[in-house]
Amino acid sequence: DMSTHGIAEFHRGYLAQVDREGLIVDARYNAGGMVSPLILEKLAHRHLGYDVPRWGSPESYPYHTLRGHLIVIANQFTGSDGDMFTTSFRQLQLGPLVGKRTWGGVIGIDGRYQLVDGTTTTQPQYSIWFHHAGWSVENHGVDPDIEVEDTPQSFVKNEDPLLARTVQEMLRLLKEKPVQSVSYSPSPRRLLPE
After folding, report:
1. Mean per-residue pLDDT of the chain
2. Cα–Cα distance between 125 and 110 in angstroms, integer?
3. pLDDT band (50, 70, 90) for residue 121
4. Which whole-number Å values give the CA distances from 164 to 167, 170, 181, in the listed order?
5. Contact of 17 with 9, CB cutoff 8 Å
6. Model confidence, pTM
7. How confident is the model at residue 193 (pLDDT cuts 50, 70, 90)?
8. How far is 187 from 130, CA to CA, in rounded Å?
9. For residue 166, how many C-alpha atoms fall within 13 Å in the half-sphere facing its CB?
10. Exposure pattern of 156-181 as b/e (b: 16+ CB <10 Å)?
11. From CA 157, how far away is CA 164, in angstroms rounded?
12. What is the DSSP letter of 189?
């Protein structure tokens, strides 16, 4: 959901997990909306340092930025702004995309005309072109970096192979490229000049 409810849910989850060594963003079944730029902006901000108060705990600088790895899960029901989110995540090189190829629908519609009987019609009005993908997202979708099959048998067994493979990939990333622990040099003494 890339609407007001979706951005609110994202921030609730994001703020609770921002200090972790890895973050998995689940974009499966995302039917679209219009807030992917806000989410991408938040995910693209990287941890640059610390705001170290005299008393209290250090905070990341910029505030609420990730210092760990990112992975996005998507499936064939990720569409519209979900397509735009996943392809932009790839273009920004924020991390791997795991799952199935997305839906492939980035032409937006507008319901501005009404027929005599009151029926509203929709017309294609907006199309999205990407620097790295051109027009190719429409009618094709976004191919994952790691493709994982999600079968009806998995559903019956209450298994989630996409999430399981994503966790496996996150653990691999953490092992190969460990996230640096919070460390900084002691504050220098700042005395008044004599």
Report:
1. 93
2. 6
3. very high
4. 5, 10, 26
5. no
6. 0.90
7. confident
8. 45
9. 27
10. eeeebbbbebbeebbeebeeeeeeee
11. 14
12. P
pLDDT of residue 57: 84
Distance between CA 28 and CA 38 in Å, rounded? 18
Q: Which of 52, 34, 48, 41 is nearest to 14 (CA)?
A: 41
The alpha carbon dihedral of 138, 36, 170, 130 has a sign of positive
On whether the CB atoms of residues 107 and 127 are closer than 8 A, the answer is yes
pLDDT per residue as tens digits for the range 31-86: 999 999 999 999 999 888 888 888 888 888 999 999 899 999 999 999 999 999 99
Question: Any residues with CB less than 8 A from the CB of 33 and at least 6 apart, and which?
Answer: 1, 2, 3, 6, 80, 81
Taking 90 as the threshold, does the pLDDT of residue 188 lie above it? Answer: no
Q: Which CATH class is domain 4-176?
A: alpha beta
Query: Which 8-state DSSP code applies to residue 140?
Result: T
| Whether the Cβ atoms of residue 40 and residue 92 lie closer than 8 Å to each other | yes
Q: Where are the domains of the chain?
A: 4-176
The token duo for 24 is: 């998995």
Distance separating alpha carbons of residues 80 and 45, to the nearest angstrom: 24
Q: For position 174, what pLDDT does the model report?
A: 98
